[in-house]
Amino acid sequence: MVSPLVTAALAFYLSTRTDAPLGAVGGAVFLTIIGSVLDEVTALGDWRHFLPAHWQYAWLDAVRPQLEWSDMIQGTSISVTYALVLFALAFRGFARKDVIS
User: Fold this and answer.
1) Considering the domain boundaries, does residue 101 fall inside one?
2) Burial classification of residue 71, based on how many CB atoms lie within 10 Å of its CB (0-12 exposed, 13-18 middle, 19 or more buried)
3) Which listed site, 22, 33, 97, 98, has its alpha carbon 20 to 30 Å from 69?
4) Which sequence ranges are marked TM in the entry (predicted)?
């Protein structure tokens, strides 16, 4: 539930940077797909742990016989951090944007 928050925050940030709504949505979807592709590149090693796409299926640990919280907590913290930064940048950009003219 938290993993798509990064895509929403990215789309919101891009919408404050462009006047084309389709550009914001397309850019967010494109960067989400690129993140998923980069997650499959094993040569990146531990750098993949900083991608939100790496943790998008961590919730599957909740349906195992032995409940494992570590991946879900790490994925949630990464996703919330990215979302907060992107929302903060979006609100900063929106506050400085001239919406009257």
Assistant:
1) no
2) middle
3) 33
4) 20-38, 72-91
